[in-house]
Specification:
Elements: H1 2-5, H2 8-43, H3 47-57, H4 61-64, H5 66-78, H6 80-89, H7 91-110, H8 117-147, E1 151-153, E2 159-161, H9 165-168, H10 171-195, H11 199-227, E3 234-236, E4 253-255, H12 262-266, H13 272-290, H14 293-315, E5 318-320, E6 330-331, H15 339-366, H16 373-379
Antiparallel strand pairs: 1-2, 3-4, 5-6
Length: 384
């Protein structure tokens, strides 16, 4: 059993699964506080209301970003070729994301240092931009990944990216960006209804009920685009050697408009995942209307997980398709680190990931309870 767990094929698949888990963890945790930031101008109109919204995420947003670091670290260590291409090819987009994400902690820390309304309004705008822009760009990145990215490798495996920032901002990618934005706005609204009191929660409930329906419709529309072959599709046509060398130049890949549905046709039980991706936001919309705060947040979180999982299952075993030379696409079986690296990383993950989960759960338990204007006023300068 131990030997099977550590063979190269199994390790590659395990790390593909773990990559998905880390991305879902990032979207399900840091996603709701980005959603709150994106909602800030719409759910809070006075300084007191804005402080309520901000203080629902103030104690947890830093811990939530651990998932972002873990995801980036996992890509770097387990899928170095994917890291090199995505972080260099999407360099300007990543720069915008990092610039926006740098604005968030500064806005959290500085906005309440002075009572000047203009000072606080400026930092609130920075918090809005620092939350909404990364959410949109992450969705755009997924849209480009589904369509294929213009890159190829030289014979000595040096990656060459041929695209541009404006090329990434194509209509289909922007559509995926809207899916991402609607999904995490819904998640942020669900968090606010769960944690906030008063007017902020009421406005979040109204907005969330609408954005949840929009999320479901946009995701279903994305499924139609995939079915029509408009969101690309790549299929490996050569024999796959799962324990072979990490060399993306020794396989054949063709463009196939129906390829992103092939795994679902081959394994019909997988249709449950996109079905839940459509149904869960609708359940969240019902929860918003019914005032079922806890169930609404869980339904929203399930929707986030299923939407992201749908993309991963559709593309498997492709990690990053190449639109300029499909056979140079990166796949699970030819883009990983060595067997020893994957094994050692897995052992570290088995030890430390449960500790991170336990600590995160303990923090949320300690910080349990709602945030209202009275509690923020009572906390004074110790609150955001």
């Amino acid at each position: 059993m131990i030997e099977f767990l550590f063979d190269y094929e199994t390790l590659r698949v395990i790390w593909w699964i773990l990559l998905g888990v880390l991305l879902i963890g990032f979207a399900a945790t840091d996603g709701f506080d980005m959603g709150v930031g994106a909602l800030l101008p719409f759910v809070a109109r006075t300084d007191a209301e804005r402080r309520v919204a901000i203080n629902t995420i103030g104690p947890v947003w830093e811990g939530n970003q651990v998932w972002f670091i873990l995801g980036g670290g996992a890509i770097f260590a387990a899928w170095p070729a994917l890291y090199a291409l995505s972080f260099s090819g999407f360099y300007l987009a990543m720069f915008l994301v990092l610039l926006a994400m740098i604005m968030r902690p500064v806005a959290f820390k500085y906005r309440s240092k002075r009572p000047d309304p203009a000072w606080r309004t400026g930092w609130d705008r920075a918090l809005f931009v620092g939350s909404a822009v990364p959410v949109l760009i992450f969705g755009v990145a997924v849209g480009n990944t589904l369509q294929g990215v213009p890159f190829h490798f030289t014979p000595d495996l040096r990656p060459i990216y041929e695209g541009s920032l404006f090329g990434l901002l194509n209509p289909l990618a922007l559509y995926c960006g809207l899916v991402s934005l609607a999904m995490l706005v819904t998640h942020g609204a669900a968090w606010l209804t769960f944690k906030a009191e008063g007017t902020v929660a009421d406005r979040a409930r109204t907005i969330g009920a609408r954005s949840a329906v929009v999320t479901s419709l946009l995701f279903a529309g994305g499924g139609v685009l995939v079915w029509l072959g408009l969101l690309g599709g790549y299929r490996v046509t050569s024999p796959v050697t799962w324990d072979g060398p990490s060399n993306p130049l020794i396989k054949m890949v063709v463009v196939d408009g129906g390829a992103w549905l092939a795994n679902f046709h081959a394994h019909p039980l997988l249709w449950i995942v996109p079905a839940l991706g459509i149904a869960a936001p609708l359940l969240a919309a019902i929860g918003f209307r019914a005032g079922l705060e806890g169930w609404t947040f869980l339904a929203s979180k399930l929707g986030v997980a299923m939407i992201i999982a749908t993309v991963g299952l559709a593309m498997f075993p492709i990690l990053l398709p190449s639109s300029s030379n499909p056979s140079h696409s990166l796949a699970v079986f030819d883009a990983s680190s060595s067997r020893v690296t994957l094994r050692n990383m897995l052992l570290a993950t088995v030890i430390f990931l449960p500790l991170i989960l336990a600590y995160t759960g303990w923090v949320y338990r300690v910080l349990w309870g709602k945030v209202g204007e009275k509690s923020v006023e009572k906390a004074g300068s110790s609150a955001y």
